[in-house]
């Protein structure tokens, strides 16, 4: 009998849990991403420039509407489908998946969950069509992990307007977004509130962060809000404190876990293909025991990551996920991802630092996934409090 080579990194067949229709749709999306998005990805990453020509291509896929059926094609998708969609996006290119995720998950998620009905009807259709691109401004120059308690951006109400003053950092899409969800502390009641600030608002300046070694295509910005005036009608009416902000972050942490799996999976695919193609000492390097050991360790991590994220999405569907489970998934998958990309880069030897072989990009980009949406340490503290009942936060 001919030898069967297991090339699918989904070694235990988790994709088989999707419906036939969902698998067909994902295959069509993957083909589209490979054909329309991937060809521009490496050049954009190297240049640290955003390829604006991809926005109509993302819009054609209706990606922003998948998570919000009433503003998309009206067909609800399962949480598991959403997870595999995140995987496919990051497998194509991590930076462009972040562009999509910031817009769809953070910005649209904040508005969908925090806006009243009039506001949702005003903003969500255009964002679902990607006619208006969103950003999410929470992190500050002096407040990353401690942004909840240490937020310095303030909001002061004056009649029917709010005056925002402060600074934000690491704001994805921040240099070109049409709508920016800005989080600020109300000086009157000390509660965090959300505001939608339009592009070009007087007093708002955005400066691109230069010199990044990861997610270079993502246009992260430093924002300065110098007495930016926002009408009360543009304050997210259902946001009453940081707990509401945290709900958005808990939802997107699950997406980061899936994205981390996608980074690891693609690094493994590149390494596995290179191992059977690259010859040294007269035979493929994949025939050497030490190389096979690296590949199997990568695949083992990926298989474990699949188990975590698939189960997390089952819990999401049942309404039982919770911030602690999302935190554990994020901490676990990003740690395992970091191991996988390091082993993959090692397998490539010197070629592993050249963009031509692509693994270098995934190796570098993994560092950003490891840090954002809560560091491993912060997510560990969330889980630690859950299992002991005791807070270890400083």
From TrEMBL:
Q: Supply the InterPro entries for this chain.
A: ACX4-like, Acyl-CoA_DH_CS, Acyl-CoA_Oxase/DH_mid-dom, Acyl-CoA_Oxase/DH_mid-dom_sf, AcylCo_DH-like_C, AcylCo_DH/oxidase_C, AcylCoA_DH/ox_N, AcylCoA_DH/ox_N_sf
Keywords for the protein's UniProt record, in alphabetical order: FAD, Flavoprotein, Oxidoreductase
What residue stretches are annotated with the Acyl-CoA dehydrogenase/oxidase N-terminal domain? 22-130
List, separated by semicolons, the cofactors it needs: FAD
Q: Which residues form the Acyl-CoA dehydrogenase/oxidase C-terminal domain?
A: 240-387
**Transmembrane regions listed in the UniProt entry:** none
Q: Where in the numbering of this chain does the Acyl-CoA oxidase/dehydrogenase middle domain appear?
A: 135-228
Q: Could you confirm whether the keyword Aminoacyl-tRNA synthetase appears in this record? A: no
Cross-referenced Gene3D superfamilies: Acyl-CoA dehydrogenase/oxidase, N-terminal domain, Butyryl-CoA Dehydrogenase, subunit A, domain 2, Butyryl-CoA Dehydrogenase, subunit A, domain 3
Please state which protein family the record places this protein in. Belongs to the acyl-CoA dehydrogenase family.
Q: This protein is called what?
A: Acyl-CoA dehydrogenase family protein
